Amino acid sequence: MTTDELLAEGVARAVKERMTPMAFSRMRETYKKRFSNFKDTLEQHGLKLVHN
Hints:
The chain is built from 3 helices and no strands. The protein is mainly α.
């Protein structure tokens, strides 16, 4: 969804209609993959993430 589409549809309506449980699941899986790739790339360069 582009910013223009979001503005045309309205934020409240877009969230209500598009943020389904399936959409959240896909978003979580995408985040996990991107974070894993980020972490792997750091480790390849001798850096390590520290969680507090």
